[in-house]
Structures are given as structure tokens and as C-alpha cells.
Amino acid sequence: MVRLSVAQLLPALNGGGVERGTLEVAQELVKQGHRAIVISAGGRLVPELVSAGSEHLAWPLGIKSPLTLRWIWPLRRWLTGQRIDILHIRSRLPAWIGWLAWRGMNPATRPRLVTTVHGLYSVSRYSAIMTRGERVIAVSQTVRDYLRRHYPELPPERIAVIPRGVNPAEFPYGYQPSPAWLKTWRRQYPQLQNTLALTLPGRLSRLKGHEEFIELIVRLRDQGLPVCGLIVGGEQPGRRRYAAGLRETVQARGLGDVILFTGHRSDMREIYAASTLVLSLSAQPESFGRTALEALSLGTPVVGYDYGGVGEILARLYPAGLTPFGDVAALTTKVAALLTAAPPVPSEAAFPLQRMLDETLALYAALLQSPRKIV
């Protein structure tokens, strides 16, 4: 077996889906006997990355400042000296640094270049850098359609659809939280006793549909349904005013004991499993919809808007959870019906993590064997 050296670039290694996918690919590379390096500004996932056998290079390539350009030359020297086989870039600003470093290297010996489009970015020259990979991974059919529509100059044969996946061992179907966790959970949130818990996961951002979620809870309670709402997600520094406004709205409507803000949680598996229903109400289509897939993997029903990656996942796994975008009346009717009699979530592992890992490593191998071209 030829031992590969693969470097992945991204802004930081905190708890988001992009970071988790980076960590999963790095772990699989090490498991297969390859060398995995991640270049980022650091974050809480670094110890897990390193303890599993990968390397981490703490370079802040995602800071939006002209000074970040100074990393082009050190990165070029490092890529040459380390004889990196694959340079895999996962975010736009690191992509500019990585591409400019890569472009100045010898085309006959430089690494092969892969980009992954994780989001439906604003269409611009800045975002177009994500189409410069010799192979461009789209994390869903939604992302592939976005690329084909907005960047027609990108040859379709360079795009590979590799959906992200969930490890069924980490999110097993039918999972039940431990008695100790449930005891702590009920002590922390006694308001959930004898209620139907509806959960909206995601950071406290205007795009995540919190206002619609609050309105949904109000309408369901007006129908006599004993529901509580869980808003699970942390505040971001630039959105503190929005988060405070949400809390004020909840209090003003007399819902202080009905809609609960948990903040950031690291026990999402347990929260999904303890929920009656999980919601996905993003104002813009998701590129994939990992939270919806994690909940469905456990067997918890999900209701989400019929578009984007979440729409793809629900159409495949749980079409009963599809609802028209922005129609709160239809959303209320849908949720009320599922709370009364929800069809079971199928146990099929439609998006297994191992398939994503196998397809990613197979793409690396195929690219290394393909002719080199100037991109």
C-alpha cells in the first residue's frame, strides 16, 4: 500500500459539521495507515484529533485580514518540504491561501488539489475559489445543483457528490439515554415533565427559524397540546442582541416555562433521543442537514422545510416530516398530526459515515492516478 500524506485546511477545529467531517476523514486516514495533517487556528477538537494519531499545524488561515496573505509562502514551503500528496481545502479564505500557495508550485510535483463545498455560499468571485479544486466534492445533490447553476464554467465531471454521513454506532437506532443522564436532565428542566418536547437545534442565528418555532409552540398550545420547546444552541459574539431579543419575546408571551434555552450542549445524542420531535426551520436551505440526519438515525421523527439538504434527507428517510417552506399554518398542522400519530422512522442507515469515508479516500486515490492539468 502506498502511504499518502493528506493535509486538510480549514479556519478552526471547534464543534461544527465541517470540523467534525475533517476530524472523521483524518481519523480514517490514520486507520488506513496514511499520514493526516490538519492546518487550522485550533479549537476544542484538536486534542481528539491528535490523540487519534493525526498531526495539527496551528496556522490561522481563516482570519479575514490582509495580513493572512503572509501565510502563502510558508504554506508553499511546507507543502514542498513535507511532500504532501493531497491538499484538501474546506473553507473559502483558507482556500485562497491554499490555492495561491499551490498555484506557485511545480505543476509536475505539487499536491493534487481537492475542495469540499460545505455550504450554499453567496455567489461571488470570492466564493468561486471553492470551484478551483481538481476535484470538487459537493456534500449533497443540493450543493451540486448550486454549483452547476451558479458556476457553469466548472466542468461537471470535476464534481463528486459525497454526502456527509452519520456513524450508526454513535447514533444507534432506538438509543435511550442512561438513567443518570435522564435524572440530571429532569432536575435541570423540570418543566419537561409530562410534556411533548419539541427541539430546535442550531446556533442562535436569525436564519435558524426561532421566531417560527416560538409561533409554532404558541399555536400548538392553543390547540390544547402539552408541548414544550427546547432551543438548543450557543450564542455567537456578534449575535448577542438577537439572542436577548428571543428571550424577551418568550418572556413577553408568557412562555418562560414553556420554551427553554439550553445554550451549547455536547450531549446532542441524548437530547435528540429524549425529544418527541426535532425541527429544522432554517430560513435558507441547508447544504446537507446533519442535525436532521442524526435525530433520524436515532429514530426520532423530524419535521423540516421541503428544500435543500434537509428536504433531500427527509424525502429519502422520512417524507412524513416534509412541510412547505415558511407556511406556519401548514407546519402547525403537520406537527400536530405527528404528535398524535407519527409513523415510525425507518431503521435504514441511508447515509452511513463509512460510505462517506470510503468514497473520499477513493477520490484521493483516483485523483493521484489521473493526469495532471493546470487548474
Sequence of secondary-structure elements? EHEHEHEHEEHEHEHEHEHEHEHEHH
Flag low-confidence runs.
none
How many independent structural domains?
A: 2
Q: Which structural class do the helices and strands define?
A: alpha/beta
Q: Count of helices?
A: 13
How would you describe what is shown here?
This protein is of the alpha/beta class and 375 residues long. It has two domains: 5-165 and 353-369, Rossmann fold (3-Layer(aba) Sandwich), CATH 3.40.50; 179-340, Glycogen Phosphorylase B (Rossmann fold, 3-Layer(aba) Sandwich), CATH 3.40.50.2000. Helix content is 39%, strand content 15%. A seven-stranded parallel sheet has the order 3-2-1-4-5-6-7, with helices on both faces. Strands 10-9-8-11-12-13 form a six-stranded parallel sheet, sandwiched between helices. It starts with a strand and ends in a 6-residue tail after the last helix. The mean pLDDT is 94.
Summarize the structure.
The protein is of the alpha/beta class and 375 residues long. It contains 13 helices and 13 strands.
